[in-house]
Specification:
The chain is of the alpha+beta class. Helices cover about 40% and strands about 15% of the residues. α2 runs parallel beside α22, α20 packs across α22 and α21 packs across α22.
């Protein structure tokens, strides 16, 4: 089985907390975490609901492998209708919180309604109750976690919470656990803030039982851990350099979006790379990187723990930022750095700390700053409006705007609405580098063609984690494909999208897919949950989840017109690098993609596709 078999339903309006059995038919059809929580949202929430209204719901969900001895079994997801996009939102986080919820005996927690005053949910095994959070409101994620642990006299409590960004309903506010692990994208933290829900604190002491075949599960998880250890990416690259190993690689192939996608290579990439993080600074002789760190049950350990330069302008007289804390991941380093033309590694780490401390998605924040800097250089925005000079490359502007956005003051309020709304307000909608309102991550769609199709068709707006074709197009995993051609990409994107949905829903980390294929996941799920989870079944579950999300978005009002990219990527060729002279070939790929998906030409599901997938 491996599911706990029960869920918590919290009605914030009435202040009630109730236990109910997990719908096991749905669990078998959608696995858990992303798939299962989305099924509950689809069944219970009107697709046209205002995401920040009490009628929206938000779910914290684990998968069947969460909390087990499967490698990386620490993942959980936060699923809701997202305020940044108006589409389905599912944000995934690591750390220890997900495993703790499972060990307390719960598969998921559903929140509905809105509390009249700030509250947090405290779960201790079978006991769960809403508690007053007036003393926590206005506090950072860091302070909230510290206060709850002290209050309950238990340092082993795990906390998932929002900072001031979520309270102020910054549309890209994140939900943060374990100080610097985040369900980061699509504004799930803003939904939490709109409900006056500050945190969920969990202490679980039961462990995870119900494994269908314990002996087989121990055997198969041991074999799969060896595959991860022996792989060059999961056994060497990620533990040593983290995701930042990609900075120089992606820059060299001409796919590092720079200065709001004006350019596709950044002359300062080497200054903000993994190698730079590990190089001793001239100022104090110490490297920014202190060590790597793993999430629960993880044998990869890609996380970064870093220490900022105490003499840097951003932290002078701010000793609270001097300690070792969450370091830069590749996406954050790109968004805070190359996207804005900033090559000051310490400034990037400061902005990153603010995003962790107050709960903001660094990708959307950084990419929105890129749009602000372009608007400033074009003369559309003036220093008086922004509150500071904001040309491309300004580390000072980056740090100041991070503070303003997190606190919701001055021009920070406008940045907190995301680049789509900001650019539209100032008459330049084409300068928002986003899809469905969500900003791009760190790969230029002209230099990696599959990623253009990935962004355009992603169910949660522009996202690399829905179909990481970079693995195939750049790293040659599982097979090498040419990043500059459109041919074969619709099939490649579909395969990655469906497989990723299965990885996410099992409750494991997508980084295992650098070494594991879907058969490796299916074998672990079968040992944990039962022999019905064959490779064919798990593949179909992934496809079912993708189509369910798509159908929700279609009913929310999205059409094929929303499966597009900004004009810059479709009309302005890359200026340098291997992709020089190329634009995104999306118009060529999209119709073929709809075809291989079994969709109509307008991007809606065909009746036979619904029937085959049991939707």
């Amino acid at each position: 089985m491996s599911w706990a078999g029960k869920i918590l339903r919290v009605d914030l309006t009435k202040g009630t907390v109730k236990s109910e059995p997990l719908n096991m038919d749905w669990a078998r059809a959608y696995l858990g975490s992303r798939g299962l929580a989305t099924k509950y949202i689809v069944q219970e929430v009107d697709p046209k609901v205002d995401p920040l209204s009490p009628a929206n719901k938000v779910i914290w969900a684990t998968g069947p492998l969460t909390g087990t001895m499967a490698s990386t079994g620490g993942r959980y997801t936060v699923v809701t209708k997202g305020p940044l996009t108006g589409a389905i939102a599912c944000s995934n986080s690591g750390g220890y919180w997900g495993a703790e919820l499972k060990m307390a005996g719960w598969d998921m927690v559903i929140f509905e309604g809105k509390s009249a005053k700030p509250v947090y949910l405290f779960i201790e095994d079978d006991k769960a109750e809403l508690r007053d959070a007036a003393h926590l409101w206005g506090q950072s994620v860091w302070k909230t976690e510290e206060t709850i642990k002290k209050q309950h006299q238990d340092p082993l409590i795990r906390v998932s919470s929002i900072g001031t960004a979520g309270e102020n309903q910054v549309l890209f506010a994140a939900v943060v656990n374990d100080l610097h692990r985040a369900a980061g994208r699509s504004g799930v933290g803003a939904v939490m803030g709109s409900k006056n829900l500050k945190a969920i604190a969990v202490r679980g002491t039961k462990g995870v039982g119900n494994v269908a075949d314990p002996k087989e599960f121990m055997k198969v998880t041991f074999e799969k851990k060896k595959i991860l250890a022996d792989n060059a990416v999961t056994g060497q690259g990620l533990p040593t350099y983290g995701t930042q190993v990609l900075m120089n690689v992606i820059n060299e192939i001409g796919a590092l979006p720079t200065r709001n996608h004006r350019d596709s290579q950044f002359e300062g990439a080497k200054d903000i790379s993994a190698e730079a993080m590990a190089t001793p600074r001239k100022s104090d002789g110490k490297a920014q990187l202190v060590t790597n760190q793993a999430c629960f049950g993880c044998t990869i350990a890609c996380g970064r723990i870093s220490k900022i330069d105490q003499s840097h302008f951003s932290v002078q007289n701010k000793p609270e930022y001097w300690g070792a804390s969450g370091g830069l991941e590749y996406e954050a380093a790109w968004a805070l750095g190359a996207a804005n033309g900033v090559n000051d590694l310490e400034a990037l780490q400061y902005a990153n700390l603010i995003c962790n401390e107050q709960g903001m998605d660094p990708i959307s924040f950084g990419a929105t700053i890129g749009a602000v800097m372009e608007l400033y250089e074009l003369g559309v925005l003036k220093k008086e409006q922004i509150g500071t000079e904001a040309p491309f490359g300004s580390a000072k502007a980056l740090c100041e705007l991070a503070d303003m956005t997190a606190k919701g003051v001055g021009f920070g309020k406008e940045i907190g609405q995301g680049s789509k709304r900001l650019c539209a307000k100032y008459g330049k909608p084409e300068l928002s580098m986003s899809v469905k309102g969500q900003e791009f991550p760190a790969y230029d769609a002209r230099g990696i063609q599959g990623m253009g199709l990935t962004y355009a068709t992603s169910n949660r707006g522009a996202c690399h984690l829905r179909s990481y074709t970079v693995a195939s197009e750049v790293l040659g995993i599982p097979v090498k494909t040419d990043p500059l051609v459109a041919e074969g990409k619709p099939e490649l994107v579909m395969a990655f999208q469906d497989a990723t949905a299965a990885f996410d829903s099992a409750g494991i980390c997508i980084f295992t897919s650098f070494a594991w294929g879907l058969p490796d996941v299916a074998e672990q799920v079968a040992a944990a949950c039962g022999p019905e989870f064959t490779l064919e079944n798990v593949q179909k579950i992934g496809e079912r989840i993708w189509n369910m999300e798509r159908d929700f978005n279609n009913r929310a009002g999205f059409t094929s017109k929303d499966d597009t990219l900004p004009p810059r990527l479709l009309n302005e060729p890359a200026k340098t690098g291997p992709a020089k002279g190329l634009t995104s070939k999306l118009p060529e790929m999209l119709p073929k993609y709809y075809q291989v998906r079994g969709w109509n030409a307008d991007g809606t599901l065909k009746p036979e596709t619904r029937k085959r997938l049991g939707l």
